[in-house]
Sequence to fold (292 residues):
Amino acid sequence: MQPVEAYFMENYKSHCPQYLALQVFGDKWTLLIIRDIMIEGKRRFREFLQSKEKIASNILASRLQLLEQDGIIYRSKDPQHKQKVIYSLTEKGIDLFPILMENARWSLKYKPVEKEDAIKVQAILDGGWEKILSIMDDLRKLHLKQ
Amino acid sequence: MQPVEAYFMENYKSHCPQYLALQVFGDKWTLLIIRDIMIEGKRRFREFLQSKEKIASNILASRLQLLEQDGIIYRSKDPQHKQKVIYSLTEKGIDLFPILMENARWSLKYKPVEKEDAIKVQAILDGGWEKILSIMDDLRKLHLKQ
DNA sequence: ACAACCAGTTTTATTTTGCAATCAGTTAAA
DNA sequence: TTTAACTGATTGCAAAATAAAACTGGTTGT
Fold:
């Protein structure tokens, strides 16, 4: 079996778009890590550990590894500090932003979202696709090496 | 503690919109059930069991129960067939449709989606919000009792 | 009466998660 | 130059969630 075929032949149970998406971020933590990168500006292991929801370090390590394997984030090392790692988004990762926004829209309507968050989200939603695309452009400038 | 306060005081780890959304559908199966109702038109326990991804009946039962508790679906009994149960979407459930569409948009771009599915999804995405809202209206006619 | 059908439940084994402690290497201060 | 603090993790263990298969009690059609 050739590599190219192998990619499309991966033993997925189905090739439904929902199923394929949930294989990547269908769990309690993955999108929270993406949120921490996109919204909170976090880039390092220790920063992710300090989120409100208190992810365990072994779970965090495994999720970061899966996200890297999936090509949603990439790791690079701080040249000044040899052991420091910086996590960045790829284009594929930045493209998850609209999903976060739809989640937020739904939560805003049906869940007890913190007032401060609600205001921020509403401002983006009011800006429509234009606003979302401009935020994604900002993320590109921050995360993609030219 | 009064009921109304109790709702807003639920012991969530945070009141971040992403976290609150993932508490409801942050797992491998929940959104696939919603997909089966919205896209495949499934309404009954046996139908959900027959999806391509082969959900186990105990998991299905637990997810349907959680979705009902969350007010995303409701159960009703077929008056003709006493033991038959019909699952329907609430407005809160129908409002998950845009999330499915954003998931699909992402998968379409980055994952090996089945061609037939890809064509259907693309047709909806080409229609923009107008198309999405009209599909949600169709779902309302089918699921919400007047 | 009997077989097929319905929505689940039970049982058991396996996998994943959560938590705390710990690790090896690197840097900064004394 | 020891020493302490910080870095991104890893390890061991218990608890919880999931998966697979068999099974249940009731209903319906023949």
